[in-house]
């Protein structure tokens, strides 16, 4: 017999891709458990399944940067002070990506690429260890939200956040709705989907010169890369990313501030008096702002 839980959780994370660079993602998780009935005539109590499995998924993947350990571009250095881990993703044509962060900021996937298959296998191996005796197996299904309008993949870090959002490289796959005078604007939405395709959105106050980073990255310079560095409650974080794959804003990069930023930019771009922006952060959540000049 099988017990299934659809929409168990949404994993918001980013991963390193040889072609696309740093990619923000949001994957929905469905799960099936194979097993016999226990003394309560259940395979497992739904409340326990949802709480325990979601907690493990959050612990091992959610709000992390997923690293394809077996790819030739990947170099990992673990023996740094303060339990920091350095990751260099040495893409050609001055597109390398470099991070030094606490170990918990990463998920190391032993595969050549980050795919639903490789991440699913990673999670299934972890979850199988924690199953009760009457459960013989687990099957995870990972999928994206079906979006028929414009969307983008973005990565960011929120140093002021008390939880895992402070990690400097985690992300989301997000749609955006824009209205002028209450009328939907597909062209404006497509503009942002193109502008923020596979983007890192950084905060100006976290930007530093490349030479100010704690680690020396010989592949980069201020001409080719933008560097960010901050200290949060989980430790020290630093990132260097190609300029062509980054946008720096004067605000924090919470979804509320991103909605405000898009609104301001859209008013200037369109000249419209009333603009409404619904900026999503992953699946089913986000911020809405509207103004009438």
On the 0-100 scale, what is the average pLDDT?
92
List the helices and strands in order.
EEHEEEEEHEEEEHEEEEEHEE
Alpha carbon gyration radius: 21 Å
Low-confidence stretches: none
CATH class annotation of the largest domain? Alpha Beta
What CATH calls the topology of the largest domain is Tetrahydropterin Synthase, Chain A
Name the CATH homologous superfamily of the largest domain.
Answer: 6-pyruvoyl tetrahydropterin synthase/QueD
CATH architecture of the largest domain: 2-Layer Sandwich
Q: Count up the helices.
A: 4
- Our estimate of the beta-strand percent is 35-45%
* Number of separate strands: 18
**Tally of individual domains:** 3
Biggest sheet details: 7 strands, mixed
Helix content: 10-25%
Shape: globular
Summed up, what is this model?
The protein has helices spanning 46-60, 116-128, 186-195, 255-270; strands at residues 2-17, 21-35, 65-68, 74-77, 84-89, 97-102, 106-109, 135-143, 151-156, 170-180, 183-184, 199-203, 207-208, 225-232, 235-242, 246-249, 274-280, 286-292. The chain is α+β, with helices and mostly antiparallel strands and 293 residues long. It folds into three domains: 1-70 and 110-146, 2-Layer Sandwich (Tetrahydropterin Synthase, Chain A); 74-107 and 201-246, no CATH class; 170-197 and 254-293, Alpha-Beta Plaits.
Description:
By secondary structure, this protein is of the alpha+beta class. The chain has 3 domains: 1-70 and 110-146, 6-pyruvoyl tetrahydropterin synthase/QueD (Tetrahydropterin Synthase, Chain A, 2-Layer Sandwich); 74-107 and 201-246, no CATH class; 170-197 and 254-293, Alpha-Beta Plaits, CATH 3.30.70. It is built from 4 helices and 18 strands. A hairpin with a 2-residue loop joins strand 10 and strand 11. The longest helix has 16 residues, at 255-270. The mean pLDDT is 92.
